[in-house]
Amino acid sequence: MRTMTRIDLEKSLCLLKKQIEIRTLTTNNVSLANGLHFFRLTSGRELMSFFYHPSITVVAQGELLLRCGGREILLPPGSAFLCGLRLPLELGVPPCTREHPNLAFGYELDLLELSKLSLRIPRVLGTTVQGFPAAMGAGEIDEELLDSIVRLVACLGTPEEEFLKPVLEREVHLRLLLGSLGSQIRSIFASDSVTGRIALAARRIADHYQEPLSVEALARECAMSTSSFHLHFKNVTGVSPLQYQKRLRLREARRLILEEGFPVGAAAAEVGYANASQFMREFKRLYGETPGQARGDFREKFSGRGGLLDADMESDV
User: Fold this and answer.
1) C-alpha count within 13 angstroms, C-beta hemisphere, residue 133
2) Which residues of 238-251 are buried (b: 16+ CB within 10 A; e: fewer)?
3) CB contact at 8 A, 9 and 77
4) Are the C-beta atoms of 311 and 48 separated by less than 8 Å?
5) Mean pLDDT, to the nearest integer, of 159-165?
6) What is the per-residue pLDDT across 227-248, written as a single tens digit (0 to 9) for each?
7) What sign has the CA pseudo-torsion 240, 246, 252, 255?
8) Do 308 and 106 contact (CB within 8 A), yes or no?
9) Are 149 and 11 in contact (CB under 8 A)?
10) Distance between alpha carbon 306 and the CA centroid of its chain, in Å?
């Protein structure tokens, strides 16, 4: 197998940029049913709070600003960031224009495929980002991984897609595990590791976020003391268990209010809030506006729904 070079990376990045440009000619953000997302960002945006799905995002042109736990990192072209769990993050877009947009590509990961593959390959050393959650990684993308992504995107809509796409998707997952971000994702599926046990607890909270949360019970399931569980949970996800649940609840309540037309009180009760006043305070603290203000601004300010970013992306229109 030939060794890829820096020139190969630049060529692959140029090809990915062209694919994003082609697929976003008529609309700024395109999300396909198979978990591929193409983003054309034509105006700067302040940091926005959202839950990010397990996925990898590649910056093809321009920059993105990522913040978690008070730490910020600027992602230039050719960089990628990986989320192995649903993580509460903040994303910002530095100044850009319609003539010189920021372009990015996102791919939602198949956790079952990653879990099966991770059992079959040896442990690899990976890179970490100091101060960021252990379930996340960021840095320059590996040439081999970018090449696999470009070939996956290029096969879409071709006569060969039916045969090539499953093979290339598997290759992307394998390249991710074997690359510089591999240790981040592999640790999530290692039940004998602290990260693996915390990952299971985080998924348990996400699956039952409407229900009362017993941190003590989760700590016992992870074979940890409550204080140790708190510490490790924050190291892996960037927030405490209660904050993790709270952000899941607020995100879903916001979706119900804006997209489903729920009354504010009904949305609060639906996601598990017994006190509407508490819900209003916490909603405004996270999103910077009341539910009523968010509803009034929704049509004007927000366009994207769901997808890779489990939040509403501001419209570029």
Assistant:
1) 31
2) bbebeebbbbbbbb
3) no
4) yes
5) 94
6) 999 999 998 898 999 999 999 9
7) negative
8) yes
9) no
10) 11
